[in-house]
Amino acid sequence: MKKDAIFADKTQAVGDFNFDEKTAEVFEDMLERSIPLYREVQRMLGEVAAEYSVSGTNVYDLGCSDGITLATLSSAIAGAGKQVRFVGVDFSQAMLDRAARRLGEGGPHGKPTLLLADLNEACNIENASLVVLNLTLQFVRPLFRDRLIHAIYDGLNENGCLVLVEKVLGSDSQFNRLFIKFYYDMKRRNAYSETEIAQKREALENVLIPYRLDENIELLKRNRFGSVEVFYKWYNFAGLLGVKTAR
């Protein structure tokens, strides 16, 4: 695992964060050191996948990056004795290339379908029992988030599940500041320097646009998800489940 040092050297002009080859080659280390409880969240995604996936349906990972979550889902669903078709979608060819190498033939489920696509544009979801947006929706422009969630709802079968994991804003400004402080403290514990923290924050400023937790809940509910529940919360990170229930 190559160490993430993308923002280690101080620069006068920090560009927008992107998921190019430079990011792809250090992505696993970046996740381990930047996302709180990352491995536990992966385990939880596997549990949810094993519960909601249905044989003969499609399972989507939107914003699949280098295939880490697809591998987690595949292992958990195979362990539950179910056969599904995996579809990974990402806007970075560098990430998809790494996902293809990681997943190979896809184990018991066969080779996954990996698609290069921009989630700000139309997204085709069909015959789905599970759709995962793991730290992805925050990179979709707010103007297009309702359209994406609506498309996911339409493409899910009855009792299908959307898993949404996001960085979130606090509803109270005092707690929001405190939770951000705790998050940067975590990064310091994981050996990120003050320069790296500051420059990555600047790079993400116009790229990653988080909602409050209640805004994400409302987003799912107004797009007809009948059952919505929080399954994970760590200061300014949260995970939601939305299920397409019969009306």
Walk me through this protein's architecture.
The structure is a single chain. This protein is an alpha/beta fold and 247 residues long. The chain has one domain (26-169, 209-243): Vaccinia Virus protein VP39 (Rossmann fold, 3-Layer(aba) Sandwich), CATH 3.40.50. It is built from nine helices and eight strands. The chain has helices at 21-24, 27-34, 38-52, 68-79, 93-103, 142-155, 173-189, 194-204, 213-222, and strands spanning 58-62, 85-90, 113-116, 128-134, 156-169, 211-212, 227-234, 237-243. Strands 1, 2, 3, 4, 5, 6, 7 and 8 form an eight-stranded mixed sheet that branches. The longest helix has 17 residues, at 173-189. It is globular, with a radius of gyration of 18 Å. The N and C termini lie far apart (47 Å). The mean pLDDT is 95.
Give a topology summary.
Elements: H1 21-24, H2 27-34, H3 38-52, E1 58-62, H4 68-79, E2 85-90, H5 93-103, E3 113-116, E4 128-134, H6 142-155, E5 156-169, H7 173-189, H8 194-204, E6 211-212, H9 213-222, E7 227-234, E8 237-243
**Radius of gyration from the CA trace?**
18 Å
Order of helices and strands: HHHEHEHEEHEHHEHEE
What is the strand content?
15-25%
User: What class do helices, strands and sheet pairing give?
Assistant: alpha/beta
* N-C termini distance: 47 Å
Overall domain count: 1
Q: Flag low-confidence runs.
A: none
CATH superfamily: Vaccinia Virus protein VP39
| The CATH C-level class name | Alpha Beta
Proportion of helical residues = 40-55%
The CATH topology is Rossmann fold
What is the number of helical segments per DSSP (H or I, 4+ residues)? 9
- β-strand number: 8
Shape call? globular
